[in-house]
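Protein in question kept underneath.
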Amino acid sequence: MPKLPMLLLKRLRKNYQLSIITLMGLFGVMAVTPYAVYRLVQGNYLVSFADTTMVVSTILAVLHAWRSGDTVKPGLWLAVIFSAGATVIAINLGVNGLFWIYPLILFNFFMVSPGKAMITMLLVLGTLLGYALFVPGTVFESSYQMISFLVTGLIASLFTYIFAYRTNTQRDQLQAMAILDPLTGARNRRAMNDELRIAVSTHRRHGSSYGVLVMDLDHFKQINDKFGHPAGDQVLTDFVELIQQCSRQENRLFRFGGEEFLLLVPNTDKAGLQAAAAHLQNQVREHLRGPGGPVTMSVGGAILRSGEPWESWLQRADQHLYEAKSAGRDCSIIEADPTPVSALAAAPSSP
């Protein structure tokens, strides 16, 4: 398979909402385009214009989602356009146009959140009801038909809302399970790798500064050996809670080893990273307690260098952690001022 299609499929697999917008957009274009052409040939220009507007809007929205990565605005735009178009078609065609309201219900609940989709459908049904009462005999052939349609439309919307809400909740739970450590609630190594990649990309594009602190609880194995793993698990849980309370909101905490954690610190320099490490060490020293008494930690830190891959960045911080542990533990070692990778590569080698 060519490289470009493989990259496109990989992106669709990783982005659920983008795949939904793409798939629903494709179905929408394939379903509506023939009707736009047919109604144009039949001379029903208003409905043909509504169909054409939906087709063009769908193509533009899908292209915007692919280019920008934003799926919220295109989804909302499509929900509004399709709702308005379906309403115009139903008013113009009467009973024959009402059949499009039912697929519209499903479409909207895929495009936007369940609450927004429900509000949109209530507006559509309310508009049809108001127009039918204002101009009797245009949309519905009888009051009984109108009531039957409204009842079935509301029931379909309610059932779809329940299904969409439950599906979204389960998907959020699965996503949380995929990136969170089940014991401590900190993000796991998979999430850490992704966040470090994003940090490197953001630094490359916008020059944003980042630092990492790799933290290791001192003599943690002794806690497990003397008091059992449940006691050790409690220490880990208390540690994560303490670090999260003492860190800035934009910092990200990850567990990537047994008692090893990484804190991603955006918008910082060496002095800021040193201050963060000292502050967190003091908090742990004063407030973290295990069955055997106070618990301390060793810390290694590194500032992201220009042009550096995230693996090298992490490796440098990890090396400083081992230096801190070799120096007697309960201390932190933050690297010297970073030297650009290009400068290191250009420097002459020692004889």
